[in-house]
Amino acid sequence: MITVGLLGCGNIAGLIAAHRPGNIRIAAVYDRHVERADDLAGRLGALACHDFNEFMAADYRVAVEAASIGAVVDHGEALLDSGRDLVCLSVGALADTAPRERLVAAARRAGRVLRVPSGALFGLDNAKVGRISRLTRVLLRTTKPPRALGLEAGARQLLFRGAAGECIRRYPKNVNVAVALSLATGREAEVELWVDPAVERNTHEVVLEGEFGAVVITVHNLPSPDNPATSRLAALSVLALLSDLDNPLVVGT
Ligand SMILES: NC(=O)C1=CN([C@@H]2O[C@H](COP(=O)(O)OP(=O)(O)OC[C@H]3O[C@@H](n4cnc5c(N)ncnc54)[C@H](O)[C@@H]3O)[C@@H](O)[C@H]2O)C=CC1
Ligand SMILES: O=C([O-])CC(=O)C(=O)O
C-alpha cells in the first residue's frame, strides 16, 4: 500500500481521489482553503490538515503536490527533508537553477526522490535520450481554448513564442509541461503558446529532432471538470506514477 499526502485539494486532487486504484491510500490532505481540505478529506476518510505543520506531522510516504509553483517553493524542501518522496506537478518551480538545485540537494540529503510526472504530455520517457544523445530541436506547441487562459479570442492567436523558462514565468498555470520537457531532454524547450476558439481540447505538440531521428507527438487532452487549463491526463499520470512505486515490473524508460 502506498500512502499519500496531497498538497492542494483542487481539481487534480479531486481527480486523483476519484480514480485512485486500490493500492493507493490518501492518508492526509492540505489546502490553504481549509474548507477544500475538509471536503476532500471527508470524501476519502483522510486526515484534513489545516496548516502545513499538521501536514508535515501526518503519516504518509509520498507527498503529491497539486497546488501551485509557490507551494513547491515554500514547502518542497521541508517535505523532502522529512524523508518523503515528492511528486511535483507545478514543475515550473524547477525552471530556475537555484530553486531546482535546492530541492535536488534536499532530495539527495534525505535519500529521497523528487519526481516529475509526465503530467499532461506523452513522450517524456524517450525524450530523456536527449541527455545521452544530441537533440537539435526541442519544441512544444501548446494550443488551448481561450477560456483556459481566462481570455476571449475570436480567432487563433499566438500568445507567446520563446524559451520555456520565460513562458512559465508569464503563464504559470498553463505550461508546466514545457519545463517538464526541458528537464527530461536536458535542453530548454522552445515554446509556442496559442489560444484557439476552434479547439475544445488542450493540445500539446512535442517535436524532437536529433541523432536518434525525429518525432512529433500530438496530445489532444480533455480538460478537467473543475479547471479548463488543466488536462485530465495530468491527474491520471500521477496515479500511474504512484502505482509503479511498488511495482516489480516497470515499463517505460
Ligand atoms: N505538470 C503538468 O503536466 C500539469 C501541472 N499542472 C499544475 O498542477 C497544479 C494543480 O492544478 P489544479 O489542481 O488544476 O489547480 P487548482 O487551482 O484546481 O487547485 C490547486 C489547489 O491548491 C491550493 N493551493 C495553491 N497554493 C497553495 C499553497 N501554497 N498552500 C496550500 N494550498 C495551495 C489551492 O487553494 C487550490 O485548492 C497547478 O500548479 C497547475 O498549473 C496542471 C496541469 C498539468
Ligand atoms: O494540463 C495541461 O494541458 C498543461 C498545463 O496546464 C500545464 O502544463 O501547466
From TrEMBL:
Family annotation (InterPro entries): Asp/hSer_DH_NAD-bd, Asp_DH, Asp_DH_arc, Asp_DH_prok, L-Asp_DH, NAD(P)-bd_dom_sf
UniProt keyword annotations, A-Z: NAD, NADP, Oxidoreductase, Pyridine nucleotide biosynthesis
Domain Aspartate/homoserine dehydrogenase NAD-binding: 8-117
Catalytic activity: L-aspartate + NAD(+) + H2O = oxaloacetate + NH4(+) + NADH + H(+); L-aspartate + NADP(+) + H2O = oxaloacetate + NH4(+) + NADPH + H(+)
Enzyme class: oxidoreductase
Function statement: Specifically catalyzes the NAD or NADP-dependent dehydrogenation of L-aspartate to iminoaspartate.
HAMAP family xref list: NadX (MF_01265)
Protein name, per record: L-aspartate dehydrogenase
Provenance organism: Thioalbus denitrificans
Underlying gene: nadX
